[in-house]
Design a protein that fits this description.
By secondary structure, this protein is an alpha+beta fold. It has 7 helices and 16 strands. A hairpin with a 2-residue loop joins strand 15 and strand 16. Helix 2 packs across helix 3. It is globular.
Amino acid sequence: MATIAYDKLEGSIWYNGGFVPWQEASAHVLTHGLHYASSVFEGQRVYDGEIFKLKEHTDRLFASARMLDFEIPYSVAEINAANRETVLKNGIVDGYVRPVAWRGSEMMGVSAQENQINVAIAVWQWPSYFDPEARTKGIKLKITKWRRPDPRTAPVHSKAAGLYMICTLSKHAAEAEGYDDALMLDWRGQVAESTGANIFFLIDGKLHTPTPDCFLDGITRRTVIDLARLRGIEVIDRAIMPEEMADATECFLTGTAAEVTPVGVIDEYTFTPGQVTEQLIGDFESLVRRRAAA
């Protein structure tokens, strides 16, 4: 994580087709994306100078924009190239990439058909999302009061800024009580995900993961499912109720920021980072480094 404010970092940000100095990449205070959350983004990891699964992330960025009823004014190929160029220009070997697209300030109000769509890409060095020692023992989660919404109430399959408001509230509340993150249930009371990562449980030698019908089917989630199946581990995608966590022996999170992170505690439920979790951490690390080398 940065030790100074993010708007004070050094480097260059790709902004609407060209590079600007980091501290000059700004938006007007009346931008629609700020007031009405008409903004979508991606989180991508750089390993050995290469962005992991860039195409999948860019495809999702464009899909998220369409769900918010706007079109990104560049092609997928142009955005892919801009991501790579931004990593190269800033000399990032291992880090994080944040493409973001938002409605500008031409119209102020709920309706904003005429607003310009802006796109920016920033990259920075970023180590482990969670404390390395906590990752070794397993992080602690607390179930939050906020719920993942019904798909009839929000564009839940977009990576949209507005959907993260309850994530911030949940994580703040959990950290205030000494936890590392929060576990979110959905509107039905089923286990959903953490504030920024998908979740898996090992039960009787099989991996169980909530069906992503009201939250993102993460790119890292899908990657880890493939890795588990390559090892012959059965993966079951299903509805999971909170009380079923009592039957799990291992638990871990997956996400671009979290990568594969063991969980040791969720409220009164405890888990021990074991063989399956360790294998998948190693397999994921080998995959991202191998792909980068290729």
